[in-house]
Amino acid sequence: MSGTEAGDKREQINLAALSVEQLVQIKQEFEQDISNIQDSLQTLYNCKAKYALSKEALESFHPDWKDHQILVPLTSSMYIPGRIKDLDNFILDVGTGYYVEKNLESSKDYFKRRIEYVQEQIENIEKIQIQKSRFLSAVNGVIEIKQMAALKQMQQQQQAA
């Protein structure tokens, strides 16, 4: 058997064979995983929104804005006045302290591609979230069945005594 064949097989776990304590531990792990996934999704949604805003800002540029006065953000709450000198050259922050200079159309295309990439990642992570949620539901169902069986057994023992 090759390495890829072994990697393709998924391990089957018989939930009914596990103890309630083991199931509760698995449940807690999956709840934590789902929480982490939700945090990651929120980060990706925020990132996608920022890219979309940047693309929208680029699309609002007009050729007659040369020497147009604007406010340039220094921080999220501090701005300084500035003038638009060049409408076809933009400096884009591509991450980790790197910047690239692109013309207007290339800049729009960059943000379009980034939005599409982030959307793909969102869709992939949402699929994982659905799988984990389904498994969590299955674990919760088995826990409930085992707790009901234990309760029924206790009632039978009390009636027998």
TrEMBL record:
Kindly state which keywords UniProt assigns to this record, in alphabetical order: Chaperone
Q: Name one GO molecular function term.
A: unfolded protein binding
Q: Where are the transmembrane segments?
A: none
InterPro entries per UniProt:
PFD_alpha_archaea (IPR011599), Prefoldin (IPR009053), Prefoldin_subunit_alpha (IPR004127)
Q: Which GO terms describe its cellular component?
A: cytoplasm; prefoldin complex
GO biological process annotations for this chain's record?
A: protein folding; RNA polymerase I assembly; RNA polymerase II core complex assembly; RNA polymerase III assembly
Chaperone: present as a keyword of the record?
yes
In terms of Pfam families, this protein maps to: Prefoldin
Identify the NCBIfam families for this entry.
prefoldin subunit alpha
Regarding protein family, the annotation reads: Belongs to the prefoldin subunit alpha family.
Spell out the protein name for this chain: Prefoldin subunit 5
